From TrEMBL, chains A, B:
Protein name as catalogued: N5-carboxyaminoimidazole ribonucleotide synthase
Domain of life: Bacteria
Gene Ontology biological process terms in this record: 'de novo' IMP biosynthetic process
Naturally occurring in which organism (per UniProt): Microbacterium aurum
PANTHER family found in the cross-reference section: PHOSPHORIBOSYLAMINOIMIDAZOLE CARBOXYLASE (PTHR11609:SF5), PURINE BIOSYNTHESIS PROTEIN 6/7, PUR6/7 (PTHR11609)
Keyword entries, A-Z: ATP-binding, Ligase, Nucleotide-binding, Purine biosynthesis
Gene3D superfamilies tied to this protein: 3.40.50.20, ATP-grasp fold, A domain, ATP-grasp fold, B domain
Subunit field text: Homodimer.
Family classification: Belongs to the PurK/PurT family.
Gene Ontology MF: a single term: 5-(carboxyamino)imidazole ribonucleotide synthase activity
Broad EC category: ligase
GO cellular component: cytosol
Record's function text: Catalyzes the ATP-dependent conversion of 5-aminoimidazole ribonucleotide (AIR) and HCO(3)- to N5-carboxyaminoimidazole ribonucleotide (N5-CAIR). Catalyzes the ATP-dependent conversion of 5-aminoimidazole ribonucleotide (AIR) and HCO(3)(-) to N5-carboxyaminoimidazole ribonucleotide (N5-CAIR).
Catalysed reactions listed for this entry: 5-amino-1-(5-phospho-beta-D-ribosyl)imidazole + hydrogencarbonate + ATP = 5-carboxyamino-1-(5-phospho-D-ribosyl)imidazole + ADP + phosphate + 2 H(+)
Length: 371, 371
């Protein structure tokens, strides 16, 4: 009777869809990789998402299938669509979040601003790209990268010699950016689309560390250009659900597309506590083709700080008494994952009127979970 | 590793603890009365909460035991405490929410303002109470009442003849009230206490229909007196977790205590979207003896309207497209319960700066779920 949403993948993004789905009244089922994952509470199946029969069995009896990650193979996705399963985002869109080379070519076709780039298949090809770009480049494996794994800044093809075995690579100019931004939009299968305010994201060691929403010093023009890029990509690629467009703001004040995520994204966690409709609720609504919620901020400023790694000497819970006592207005989110260096195990959100105070509050709270 | 909270009872109050518990990183387990209840997602056991062995088995392996309702018998609660289970609220406090006669006597001992009342055991006793109170009284069964069942306004003892078989009854003066209010406080076992702003509750046919937070036209004095009543009761009775004190504001501007609930309460649903820390998160924190969250409103006004009954001709979900399209900023909460006349099956929350607009918004959204 209730609408049923199936999520492939049991990580924290699936976990964080549980709360808004339960509140709205949507049944959530998760196909988890193994027992005890972040989204274990809603796990009704455990298995390999690369195996068609596993996913097919899971998809039976759900109204819509969506994802915690972008790793489900195209063949599996296309077979499900052929079965008549409502898959959102669908394989035609998702391929551009799965393969950065495909993405670059498609975004070029849409006329989107992006770094100069080339497909390189050997050292000679990379050397000529380097020669044309001041001797430095960012080289990326087209598939399977995350949290900066699969991204290297190189001056010599030797530095990615190990990667050429895997076939083609993406070479990009090393962008001289003043900061990184992210633009999120939500889009329904029936076409309705809403844009969130563009946010500033701060990466450390290739991993998202902090997000400020909306991006400080964001002119009307910046906000509009970012939203129009997000909208053009969502519509051009036929994205359904949440889309995040990672952007560079360059020293000469252009916006260039870095990459795409077609699912809830770390840059949108602030909205759980800072937006009228957070990205997890919005994703659930969008993929079920329900009318979208208001993406407006509830407060002038929201700041999200990731908990990376967590305490070496204990559990996240061991820090709850201290952090909750010191910061009664901060919202602590943890993912049920064991602490491990560099691992995303939770985040905190702070909201308020004064940016400096909100930044301080979020950082101070997150610091309680540090080593 | 994660903290584990066991909830006895699988209704909507247990259901609504799931979302904040998941977000904070607390494992929730529910002992449900039967399969398919509102809190089924977190149900790890099904059984009779009046049976000690059932509850005892469920309590094994949880850090703290709490409740969706107040119906677990004292003998069961006391046996669990003797076992060493951390039960919050504990039996000593909970008895005053289980029995309205016990409550009246105890509140009198605490000097709390309340309606005139008497324990009556037969028609003659009730007749003399009637004679002393202008010929009318409110008669209540001390135990097991909810949503106005177990409450009758009478002018003649005959009207409750069927109830005298059950033993003693509570007779109360028929209070001449201008409105009903509710004061919530949260209290930890270690003593920390926070008070929510007093709210106005509107009952229809003995059932909560709407809540406005904070109570309109609430003077500083009203707010302080209500908070001090809530605080005195929580401390006096040793309540742990959420306490709701239902109050009458009389025509001569006194506050009188109607009754107590020691759990999240319908009068606090607004806080899910309208408070920095909603009552469900607060209850989880309080019973686990974690520092309490900020109970302040996020916006000047919040209005909650219950969905009572639901569409006769279909499911709640059939109304989602229309309501979500018309009200993108309203938050819809449904409980996974089948529509049935008068049944609480969900609620909507609206928040904002302008009370009239917020009231309109919440009522208009809830109306989409009407028959
Ligand atoms: N062309 C570039 N010029 C400069 N810096 C870059 C470039 N491409 C990537 N980076 C830096 O490396 C980071 C990671 O790159 P990218 O987002 O492509 O990798 P990823 O592993 O898919 O990341 P994640 O999954 O964490 O978003 C970027 O956030 C940015 O800081
Ligand atoms: N003494 C009284 N004088 C006037 N009205 C009363 C009195 N007692 C109760 N009422 C009315 O009846 C309603 C229900 O009473 P009460 O709260 O005691 O019953 P209940 O069934 O336990 O309610 P619920 O579980 O819905 O809160 C009150 O909200 C109030 O409107
Ligand atoms: Mg990236
Ligand atoms: Mg009542």
């Amino acid at each position: 009777m209730a609408l049923t949403l199936g999520i492939v993948g049991g990580g924290q993004l699936a976990r964080m869809m549980i709360a808004p789905a339960v509140e709205l009244g949507v049944d959530v089922r998760v196909l988890a990789e193994e027992p005890g994952m972040a989204a274990a509470l809603a796990a009704t199946a455990t298995g390999d998402y690369r195996d068609l029969e596993t996913v097919r069995a899971f998809a039976r009896g759900v109204d819509v299938l969506t994802f915690d990650h972008e790793h489900v193979p195209q063949e599996v996705l296309r077979a499900l669509v052929a079965d008549g399963v409502r898959v959102h985002p669908g394989p035609d869109a998702l391929q551009f979040a799965q393969d950065k080379l495909l993405m670059r070519a498609r975004l070029a076709g849409l006329g989107m601003p992006q770094p100069e780039w080339a497909r390189v298949t050997d050292a000679a090809g990379l050397q000529s790209f380097l020669d044309e770009h001041g001797g430095r480049a960012v080289v990326k494996t087209p598939r399977g990268g995350y949290d900066g794994k699969g991204v290297r800044v190189v001056a010599d093809p030797e530095e990615v010699a190990d990667w050429f075995d895997g076939g083609e690579l993406l070479a990009e100019e090393l962008v001289d950016f003043t900061r990184e931004l992210a633009q999120q939009v939500a889009r329904r299968p029936s076409g309705q689309l809403v844009a969130y305010p563009v946010v500033e994201t701060v990466q450390r060691d290739g991993v998202c560390a902090e997000v400020i929403a909306p991006a400080p010093h964001g002119s009307t023009r910046l906000t509009e250009v970012a939203a129009s890029i997000g909208t053009a990509i969502a519509e051009g690629l036929g994205v359904t659900g949440m889309l995040a467009v990672e952007l560079f703001q360059t020293t000469d004040d252009r916006l260039l597309v870095n990459e795409l995520a077609m699912r809830p994204h770390n840059s949108g966690h602030w909205g759980q506590d800072g937006a009228v409709t957070g990205q997890f609720e919005q994703h659930v609504r969008a993929v079920l083709d329900l009318p979208l919620g208001d993406p407006a901020p509830r407060q002038p400023w929201s700041v999200m700080v990731n908990i990376l790694g967590g305490p070496a000497d204990g559990t996240l819970e061991s820090r709850f008494p201290a952090v909750l006592e010191a910061h009664p207005a901060v919202k602590v989110h943890t993912y049920g994952k064991a602490p491990r260096p560099g691992r995303k195990v939770g985040h905190v959100n702070a909201v308020g009127d004064d940016l400096d105070a909100v930044v301080y509050e979020a950082r101070a709270a997150a610091a309680f979970f540090a080593d």
